[in-house]
Amino acid sequence: MKGEQFNLLILEFLLNIRKNNMETKLKTNITVKDICDGFIYNELEGKGLFGLSGKLTIQPEYQRNYIYASDGGKREMAVIESILKDYPIGLIYFNKVSENNLEVLDGQQRITSIGRFVTDKFAIKDENGMEQYFGGMAKDKKIKILETKLLIYECEGTESEIKEWFKTINIAGVPLSDQELLNAVYSGPFVTLGKEEFSNSQNSNIQKWSAYISGSANRQAFLERALDWVSKDNIGDYMSRHRYDKDINELKTYFNSVIDWISGVFTDVESEMCGLKWGQLYEQYHKKSYDPSKISIEVRKLYSDPYVKSRKGIFEYILGGGNDTKLLEIRMFDDATKKSVYTIQTAKSETKKISNCSHCAMGHDANKSKIWKLDEMDADHVTAWSKGGTTSIKNCEMLCKTHNRAKGNR
Ligand SMILES: [Zn+2]
Predict the structure, then answer these.
(1) Which one in 20, 260, 335, 398 has a CA-CA gap of 20 to 30 Å to 1?
(2) How far is C-alpha 135 from the geometric centre of its chain's CA atoms?
(3) How far does the centroid of ligand 1 lie from the alpha carbon of residue 351, in Å?
(4) Other CB atoms within 10 A of residue 105 CB
(5) Dist. CA 367–CA 364, nearest whole Å
(6) Cβ(25)–Cβ(153) under 8 Å?
(7) Are 67 and 73 in contact (CB under 8 A)?
(8) Contact 154, 25 (CB under 8 A)
(9) How far apart, in whole angstroms, are the C-alpha atoms of residue 39 and residue 33?
(10) What SS3 class is residue 170?
(11) pLDDT score recorded for residue 7
(12) Which residues are bridge partners to 98 per DSSP?
């Protein structure tokens, strides 16, 4: 962390203490060795659990999962390299719950990195690019790491003060996602159960869910989507109403209904299905009945149609009964085709003394013999795309803008 950012954090912190009357003590004598005494990392849940001889809870329920090990572990390696180079790793905040019980308020990722390194869970690269585990390091380097003192603020305050503060801090470099913030603000039994179901990367359902939902379990993407669907886009409100619930039945049931509905209607999984607004589509269409085998044929047909530009739109297009071709962004005629059709059409109508718009020519008003300019006309599919018409010169007719619009989106 750069010095400037560091000072800003302290300033922000002091302002917050004054505002909240939070009690705080700066501790400068706690070493890496102290912190790592009794360190336990839970591989299954992806989180550091305890340290400081059991006195410290590293991941209270309002904390996010450990993410420093992702992106190839660059972040956790950087923490160790900073310690070896005497760079500050930033302030760490503990919440003093009772005399013998502390929780990490901010610094969980850094502490877990240190604990994981000291227990040989990952290696760093030495100056020759060789992998080096803590266990295999030279004695002086080991001692240097273990004796490094951390800068720790111990805070004491009410739950709401602590949470308010937690809301305002973002670890440098890895800001909290919206859902991580909401989890902190509305922490309680409901969030705990929700995370167990939706934020556990070992959950075997994640692979299935990933076909329809983008993002990662660790960063709360699935929990966020589940909440978004059941709350109809009103997550904060829903979390506050259910905060002290002892079950997540409604959340789970609704989520599974949406997933089952998607996989029931669309039997093939296509990459473009990921990240669509499935909650809204479910609300709008789940009461309609569909024949999955016919749907599958239709999906494949549209996938192989070179005129369909937006494959993401295929699913909503089919659900809606195949009327809204705008969703597919059907490929339009290019300028060369339009110009060439215009020239032929206009030459013919000039000899016949009728309008170069075939619809105007059939009418009885002044436009009957009007010759429109190229920029006053638009290209139209003679046979609509939805009836098998192609976007080729043979199927192109120029109409005046009014008639083209009137013919509409067929
Ligand atoms: Zn016309």
Answers:
(1) 20
(2) 38
(3) 18
(4) 23
(5) 8
(6) yes
(7) no
(8) yes
(9) 10
(10) coil
(11) 44
(12) 101
Alpha-carbon 67 to chain mean position? 15
CA distances from 314 to 193, 289, 301 (A): 35, 17, 10
Report the alpha-carbon distance of residue 320 to residue 323 in Å, rounded: 7
Contact of 105 with 97, CB cutoff 8 Å: no
- Nearest Cα to 279, choosing from 323, 312, 311, 234? 234
Which pLDDT belongs to residue 354? 95
* Ligand 1 centroid from CA 345, angstroms: 13
pLDDT digits (tens, 9 = 90+) for 44-83: 776 778 889 889 988 876 666 777 777 778 889 999 999 9
Tokens of 66: 């450990």
From CA 61, how far away is CA 187, in angstroms rounded? Answer: 7
Cα-to-centroid distance, 306 and ligand 1 (Å): 29
CB 262 within 8 A of CB 283: no
At residue 174, the pLDDT reads 59
Nearest CA among 372, 401, 399, 395 for reference residue 383: 395
How much distance in Å is there from the Cα of 167 to the middle of ligand 1? 62
Locus of tokens 């610094």: 107
How many whole angstroms separate alpha carbon 284 and alpha carbon 221? 23
Which regions in the chain score pLDDT beneath 70? 1-23, 46, 61-64, 159, 162-176, 408-410
Q: How far does residue 365's CA lie from ligand 1's centre (Å)?
A: 11
Q: Letter for the amino acid at 344?
A: I
Which amino acid is located at 128 in the chain? N
Q: What pTM was computed for the model?
A: 0.62
What is the separation of C-alpha 50 from the centre of its chain, rounded to a whole number of angstroms? Answer: 30
Smallest CA-to-CA distance from 325 within 307, 301, 304 is with: 307
CA 397 – ligand 1 centroid, Å: 11
Give me ligand 1 centre to Cα 317, in Å.
Answer: 30
* Ligand 1 center to 359 CA (angstroms): 5
What's the CA-to-centroid distance between 341 and ligand 1, angstroms? 15
- DSSP one-letter code for 81: H
Å from CA of 392 to ligand 1 middle: 21
Burial class (CB in 10 A: 0-12, 13-18, 19+), 195: buried
**Residue 73, pLDDT score:** 84
Listed residue (365, 369, 344, 366) closest to 357, CA to CA: 369
